[in-house]
Design goal:
Number of strands: 8
Largest sheet: 5 strands, antiparallel
CATH architecture: Sandwich
CATH class: Mainly Beta
Bound molecules: calcium ion
Number of helices: 1
Number of domains: 1
Structural class: mainly beta
Helix content: under 10%
Radius of gyration: 15 Å
Distance between the termini: 6 Å
Shape: globular
Oligomer: single chain
Strand content: 35-45%
Length: 120
């Protein structure tokens, strides 16, 4: 990607970031997104507190979403990465999901993935 542009992650671009959990159902999971040379932005779902995922750090290098996995998956369709002004070089989007223990008898499960980004 060119410097000072932005990159949208979605199915149309063939780079959608999707999350899920086999058994969390409607229980909360936590998804953490992080880059090191830019900022991430998502469009939160509108709705009363407690019915839509919480989004913290929106527009910064680290964005955290807590809520239903299917709701978070929907929000991630709006994910956009913008490198820091004037930055060229490598970056990486790290995606971490923690099911917060939903649901099972053996504690929380996590999974992660890294998307390499090249600005220049
Ligand atoms: Ca689970």
């Amino acid at each position: 990607m060119a410097p000072d542009t932005s990159l949208a992650f979605n199915r149309a671009n063939g780079n959608a970031v999707e999350v899920g959990d086999l058994d969390a159902g409607f229980d909360d999971v936590r998804v953490s997104l992080a880059v090191t040379h830019g900022q991430l932005t998502v469009t939160p779902l509108a709705g009363p507190a407690g019915t839509v995922p919480t989004v913290t750090g929106n527009g910064t290098a680290t964005v955290e979403l807590v809520g239903r996995a299917d709701h978070i998956d929907y929000i991630l369709r709006s994910l956009v990465y913008a490198p820091s002004s004037g930055y060229t070089g490598a970056d990486a989007l790290t995606v971490l999901i923690d099911d917060l223990g939903h649901n099972g008898f053996d504690g929380a499960k996590t999974a992660s993935a890294v998307v390499d980004l090249l600005v220049g």
